[in-house]
Amino acid sequence: MGDYINNNVDWVLDTLGLSGFGIVLITLPLAVIQGSLGIFPFSTLIFLHISALGLVNGMLMSWLVSIVSSIVVYACCRYWFADWFERRMQRYTGRYSKWKRYFEEYGVWTIIVLRTIPIVPNNVISFLASVSGVKPGPYAISSLVGNLSHIGMFSIISSSILFPENDIGPLIAAYAAFCLILIGWFLMLKLRGRSRSEGT
Fold first, then answer.
1. Closest CA to 117 of 144, 89, 92, 154
2. pLDDT higher than threshold 60 for residue 200
3. Across the chain, what does the average pLDDT equal?
4. Which residue windows are transmembrane per the record (predicted)?
5. Cβ–Cβ contacts within 10 Å for residue 71, how many?
6. What is the structure's pLDDT at 65?
7. Do residues 155 and 46 lie in contact, with contact meaning Cβ atoms separated by under 8 Å?
8. Mean pLDDT computed over 82-92
9. How far apart are CA 93 and CA 173, in angstroms?
C-alpha cells in the first residue's frame, strides 16, 4: 500500500516537473479549496506531504499549509462572505448553534479543541470563527496550536501506513497527552463560566 502511494505521488510530481518541496505548489491551492468547500479530507494532503517529504518535513509542511489555508478562509468569510454564511447556517441552526455559542463564550479554546478533535469540518470552524467575533490575532494563534494537533493525529495514521517500520509510539503518546491537556483546560473554562453565571 505504502509503495503504491509513493509511486503515484512520484508520478504526479514527475509529470508536473516538481520535486520535493515543490509539491506545495499543488497542495497549497488544494488546501484553500478544501478549507473553503470541504469537498475532500485534509488528511489527503497530509498523506501526500508525508509520502513526498518524509514524516518530519511532511508534518511541518502540512502544518504550514493548513495555517495559511485556515487564515485565508477566515479572512475571506469575515470580510466578504459573513452575511452569506449566516444565511447558509440558518439551515443547520440546531447542529451548529451550540458551537457558535462556545466560540462566543470561550473563543480560541473552542477552535483549538475542535481542530484537535475533528468533530466539526475545518471549513465550518473557520466560518464560525469569522462570524462569532473571534479577532484575527487570537484566531491565528488558535490555528497555530489547533492545526498542529490536527496534523499530528493524521500524521500518525499516515506514517503507520507509509512507514510501517517506524516506531510511532512516542508520537501517539505525545498526541494523547496534548489532547488530554486541551480537553482538561476546555472543561475547566466551561465549569468556571458556569459557576460565574450561577453566582450572578
1. 154
2. no
3. 76
4. 20-48, 60-81, 106-129, 168-188
5. 17
6. 92
7. yes
8. 63
9. 37
Give the whole-angstrom CA distance, residue 39 versus residue 57: 25
Q: 92-120: per-residue pLDDT in tens?
A: 556 666 767 777 777 788 888 788 777 77
Q: What is the DSSP code string of the chain?
A: -HHHHHHHHHHHHHHTT--GGGGHHHHHHHHHHHHHH--S-THHHHHHHHHHH-HHHHHHHHHHHHHHHHHHHHHHIIIIIHHHHHHHHGGGHHHHHHHHHHHHHHTHHHHHHHHHS-SS-HHHHHHHHHHTT--HHHHHHHHHHHHHHHHHHHHHHHHHHH-TTS--HHHHHHHHHHHHHHHHHHHHHHHHHHHHHHH-
What pLDDT was estimated at residue 108?
80
* CA angle centred on 129, ends 123 and 131, rounded to 5°: 105
Amino acid at 198: E
Q: ∠1-165-54 over CA atoms, to 5°?
A: 75
Cα–Cα dist 183/121, whole Å: 18
- pTM for this entry: 0.73
- Condensed to tens digits (0 to 9), the pLDDT of residues 121-168 reads 788 788 888 777 788 888 888 888 888 877 877 777 766 666 667 677
Tell me the three cell numbers of residue 97: 448553534
Phi, psi of 134 (to 5 degrees): -75, 125
Q: Let me know: does 42 contact 31? Beta carbons within 8 Å.
A: yes
